[in-house]
Design goal:
95 residues, mainly alpha, 2 domains
Length: 95
Amino acid sequence: MPPDPNLIVHEVFSWVVPGLVIIVLGFPVVRLITRWLEPRPVSPRELSAINGRLERIETAGDSIALEVERISEAQRFSAGLQSEQQSPRLSAPRE
């Protein structure tokens, strides 16, 4: 018994029409989402402001590093003085 042509046409349309609708409506939605996620170009004015801020941050980081080094050197010096004061003094050897 040959297949019913109406059933074949119905089956094809039940897959093709929804697929076409999804493609036709989905393509603009996908383009909208990709444009929304795409990074925006940064103007040169904003770049110069960002560069200025980064330079100030770098200067501040260098200053902090210098001060931390000074503090650590002072700590080492203080620890050395305290260890000298607390160590028992060796007396002169008896003859």
